[in-house]
Amino acid sequence: MYCIKTNPLYWLTLNTVVSCRLVRICFDGCSTAELWGVVCPSCTNKFCLAHRHKSSHNCPSIAQSAANKLEEQARIKAFVSQTLSKMPASNCTTPNTLNQPKANSKKLNPAVSLIKLKMHATGDTKILPENRVYLLCYSTELRTSMGVFYHSNTVIGRLLDLVASKANVKNTNNIASSGPPLGLFHGKTGNRLPNDKSLQDLLKSKVLSQGQCIVLDRSHEACIDVSNIPET
Keywords on this record (predicted)? Predict the structure, then answer.
């Protein structure tokens, strides 16, 4: 059986056709010749597989794209500057105030504050919920606050010992010449809480309320300055 591939003229003809269809590459320094080549969609030149990407053959469209981007940024900057210059001074926002947090002008609802306090307050879990009095205790020595709850029958004198112990504040009221006595003060009025009254008594007289802030401080005075006590 005769096979055309055994004929030398077949291979000579095939090599001639292929060599005529090889495409020269447009990238300087590349000697590769491809049968078809890859056309760049930006510059429409033909390249080999190794140089088909824009970055591989230094496509002029890359530089043009970067120039267009810089030009667009310049136009936006000029537009913003022109717009701000036409706005009234009261409506203009300076760059220095853009990243500053806005002051919270609204105080937290007392009911919401009490709910948050109950979530984090610590105390004797054996106390029934209806007998618990929730307080936010602030120590002027430690400058920290802690949420606590105690039984409504607890008197202020006993409460002072419990709060001082829990806050790790040394109570030297029983030591003579130990300096100003430690006491509990109202977080809003600054008045000293009477040691002989119970929490229930102060709740009934509306001196205290659930979630009230009380201050642990050393003072001989019946009233202290609470203007620097953090609001809750």
Answer: Metal-binding, Zinc, Zinc-finger
Distance of alpha carbon 224 from alpha carbon 187, whole angstroms: 10
pLDDT digits (tens, 9 = 90+) for 189-213: 999 999 999 999 999 999 999 999 9
Structure tokens at 130: 């209806």
- pTM for this predicted structure: 0.53
- CATH code of the domain containing 163: 3.10.20.90
Domain contains 7: no
10 Å CB burial of residue 40 (0-12, 13-18, 19+) is buried
Same structural domain for residues 38 and 119?
A: no
Write the pLDDT tens digit of every residue in 4-31: 555 555 554 545 444 445 555 666 667 7
Contact 219, 180 (CB under 8 A): yes
Positive or negative CA dihedral for 208, 212, 218, 221? negative
The span from the CA of 32 to the CA of 56, in Å, is: 14
